[in-house]
Each structure stands twice: as structure tokens, then as C-alpha cells.
Design goal:
With 450 residues, the chain is mainly alpha-helical. It contains 19 helices and 3 strands.
Length: 450
């Protein structure tokens, strides 16, 4: 009994403490539970953001190659300068020059019919009693015809590779640009037209130039060449009808598609919970989609070259024609690829990751060291530096905006142009940081005072 009585006061003292602790725990739980439920509710309500953001960004990256092709197709038709810039290099390609030389030579020799002319001259000599001369001409007729063909071929080759024909090529294609529009819209004939499922080029103007050159070289038989308009196949177009339908659709969407891509990517970044991370993903996705487009062009090139018969267009000439036509597609995809990488790198470097923070810290330390090194040697930016430091945020935004405007209004930016713009922008941003001189601290100010 005494032991129980002795422990009684202890139990009486400790019991209220336990009850008080339980009560505090219960109150804490009651206070925390609504907060946890609110957080959980917000997470459930915002759980749709991540998948929707991913879907939108992926959709924008899938549409990006289509937009590049759409802009290319529309520009090739609507911009005569772009079309001429596309086909102008072809006249300087040896494979295309050989095709034109052979085609024009065959047309001229066929029109002259040298073998028939020699036979006719031999018969006239025989009728006049000059049988020996007529027999000799008849005997050596094939050699004379072959020599004349060789002379015509070498002359045509020199003319085709001359600057004069290069200028005519540009003129013909400039005039033919409207004809190309008619071809792709399913309409009629012109310098460029369709024949037997092929896109062909009219060689009449080139034959006229060769004819005049032959006459000037003393080849009087060239006067007998009639006005002719032979054609040479440029591209196989077995599915021309489908291509025309696709072209009309893409032309209609050439402005809508780029805007749609930007809107979809922008929406994906906006709804994302981590927008900076979404921006990095969008930039990398754009770059990856351009790589896919490049691989697709490479595969399609092989398919196209295998589908063109050698009697229609030699393999090297077909390859030159294909490469010329897709040149500006490659330029555009390289530009978009570089822009995507620049955006991704910029978003990453300005982010909160450890690598980004260390990179910015190292750059800031380097700039501070350069500034202090100059100040120790009497080089100071003075009031200009203080003003730059106070307005550094606005100056950064202005520099980035100016770089964006230069890129947008550049006529035909290439990947090199994008890289140069980015390098210049980085230099300007570095100069803003270097020139910006922080105001002196209280201690430094007190030391400087008299």
C-alpha cells in the first residue's frame, strides 16, 4: 500500500503532461490535415498540365517539318527570285551541261541531216559528170558527217558553258517561272511544261544562240537549222496530279503552318508546370525534328534517283537537279535546328540548375576580374558605367529584342547568320555586364571621402 501511495503523486504529475501532449498532437493534426488536403487538391487539379504540355510540344515539333516544306513550296512558286536562285546553279553543273549539250547537238544534227545533204551533193556531182568526185564524196561521207557532228558538239559544249548562256538560262527561268505556276496548278504550256508525266524545259532559246555562234564560226550550213523547240526532262512526275494537289494545299497553308507551330509550342510551354524545362524540351524537340527532316530528304533522294530512267535523265544530272531543288529546304532546316539549340541552351543556362548557376557565376567572376583589373590601372567607365549598371535589365531586354528583329527581318537567314547573330548578342550582353559599374559600397564611399 505504501508503494502504491508513493507512486500515486508521480502518476498524478505525469498524466496531465501526457494528456496535454496528445491534445497538442491532435490540434496539430487537425490544423495540418486541411492544408495537406488543399495541396493534394491543387496537385490533382494541376495534374493535367504536364501531359497536355507534352502533347502540345510534341505536336508542334511534328508540325515543324511540315511548316518548313510548306514555306519552301510556297516560296518556290510565289517568289521568282527564289526560283531563279534555286535553278541558277544547274547551268554551271557539268552533268547538266552535258545533258543540254547532247540534247541540243542531236537536235541540230537531226535538223541538218548531214548524211542526206552529202548524198544529195554526191548525186549532183555525178549528174554533172564528176563521177570521181561524187564517188569520193560518197565514200568519205560518213567521216565528213562524223567530223561535222564532232565540230557541232564541241561548239555547243563551249556555248553551253559560256557566261552568255548562263545569262540566258537565268532569263529563260525568270520568264518560265509563271509557266511553272501553271504546271503546278494544272494549267498549260510554256517554257516549262509537262510531257508524258515529266516536267520538261524548252530548249528553243538555247538552240538559237548556238545557231548564231555556228554561223559566226563559218559553219554556213547552220543557216539551214529551222526554228525548233525541243525539250529536255528536268524531273520525273509520275504522280504529278497528287503533287499538284499537295502543292495547292501546302501553298494555302504556307503562312498558317509556321504560325500554328509557334502557337502550339507556346501553348505547351505556357501550360507546363516547369516552363523553363518545357522551353528546353521544345528547343531540343525542334532541333530533333529538323534532323528527322534531313534524314527523310536523304532517303527520298535515293528513292528519286532509283526511279528516274537513265534514258530520261542520267543519274548525275538527276542528282544535281534534286540537290538544287532541295537546297533551300536544307538551308531552312539548318536555321530552325540552330535556333532550337540556341533556345534550349539559353533556357538551360539561365535556369536554376547547379551547372547553370556555376556557369553564370564563373562568367560573372571573369567579368568582375576584368573590370577590377582595368580600374586598378586607371581605366573606369565612370558615370556611363553607373548608368549602364542601373539600366542593365532594360539593356539586356533591348539587346535580345534587337537580335530577334534582325533575325526575323533578315531576307534569307542561314545557319551561319543565326550563329553570327547569337555571337554578337553574347558579346553585347558581355559588354553590358563589363561596362556596368556597381555603385560603391558604404565602406568604400567612406574611405574615398576626404
Amino acid at each position: 500500500m505504501s508503494d502504491i501511495n508513493d507512486r500515486g503523486p508521480e502518476n498524478a504529475a505525469t498524466q496531465p503532461g501526457k494528456d496535454e501532449g496528445k491534445e497538442q498532437a491532435r490540434l496539430h493534426a487537425e490544423d495540418t490535415e486541411p492544408r495537406q488536403q488543399a495541396v493534394s487538391g491543387r496537385r490533382r487539379r494541376s495534374g493535367w498540365r504536364a501531359p497536355v504540355s507534352v502533347v502540345l510540344i510534341v505536336l508542334g515539333c511534328v508540325l515543324a517539318p511540315v511548316a518548313v516544306l510548306g514555306v519552301w513550296a510556297g516560296n518556290e512558286v510565289s517568289d521568282t527570285g527564289r526560283w531563279v536562285a534555286t535553278v541558277e546553279p544547274l547551268i554551271h553543273d557539268p552533268a547538266i551541261q552535258n545533258v543540254l549539250t547532247d540534247k541540243i547537238t542531236n537536235e541540230i544534227t537531226g535538223q541538218l541531216n548531214l548524211t542526206g545533204t552529202i548524198d544529195q551533193a554526191s548525186a549532183q556531182l555525178n549528174d554533172k559528170g564528176l563521177t570521181r568526185a561524187g564517188s569520193l564524196l560518197k565514200t568519205f561521207g560518213p567521216q565528213v558527217s562524223s567530223a561535222a557532228d564532232g565540230f557541232i558538239h564541241s561548239t555547243v559544249q563551249k556555248v553551253i558553258s559560256s557566261p552568255a548562256v548562263a545569262r540566258i538560262w537565268v532569263q529563260v527561268n525568270t520568264v518560265a517561272h509563271q509557266a511553272l505556276v501553271k504546271v503546278l496548278s494544272g494549267q498549260g504550256n510554256g517554257a516549262i511544261s509537262t510531257s508524258n508525266g515529266q516536267i520538261v524545259l524548252n530548249l528553243g532559246p538555247f538552240i538559237a544562240v548556238v545557231k548564231q555562234d555556228l554561223i559566226q564560226r563559218g559553219f554556213s550550213l547552220a543557216k539551214n537549222i529551222p526554228n525548233a523547240n525541243p525539250t529536255v526532262a528536268l524531273f520525273q512526275a509520275k504522280d504529278l496530279g497528287k503533287a499538284q494537289a499537295a502543292y495547292r494545299l501546302i501553298k494555302a497553308l504556307k503562312i498558317v503552318l509556321p504560325i500554328l507551330v509557334l502557337l502550339v509550342l507556346g501553348a505547351g510551354i505556357y501550360v507546363a508546370r516547369g516552363r523553363r524545362r518545357a522551353l528546353v524540351g521544345a528547343g531540343l524537340g525542334l532541333a530533333a525534328s529538323m534532323l528527322v527532316l534531313g534524314v527523310g530528304l536523304l532517303i527520298f533522294r535515293g528513292i528519286y534517283l532509283n526511279s528516274v530512267p537513265s534514258n530520261v535523265l542520267p543519274a548525275d544530272a538527276a542528282a544535281a537537279a534534286f540537290d538544287a531543288m532541295v537546297h533551300f529546304i536544307k538551308v531552312s532546316l539548318r536555321v530552325v535546328l540552330v535556333v532550337g539549340l540556341v533556345v534550349a541552351i539559353g533556357a538551360f543556362v539561365t535556369g536554376p540548375s547547379r551547372a547553370a548557376v556555376q556557369t553564370r557565376s564563373a562568367l560573372s567572376s571573369g567579368i568582375d576580374w576584368i573590370r577590377h583589373y582595368g580600374e586598378r590601372r586607371g581605366v573606369s567607365t565612370g558615370p556611363v558605367g553607373q548608368w549602364t549598371y542601373l539600366h542593365r535589365r532594360g539593356l539586356r531586354i533591348g539587346a535580345v529584342a534587337l537580335a530577334a528583329l534582325v533575325f526575323v527581318f533578315w531576307g534569307l537567314p542561314t545557319a551561319l547568320v543565326v550563329i553570327v547573330i547569337v555571337v554578337v548578342l553574347l558579346v553585347v550582353l558581355g559588354l553590358i555586364e563589363l561596362i556596368g559599374r556597381p555603385p560603391a559600397g558604404p565602406r568604400a564611399a567612406g574611405q574615398a571621402a576626404p
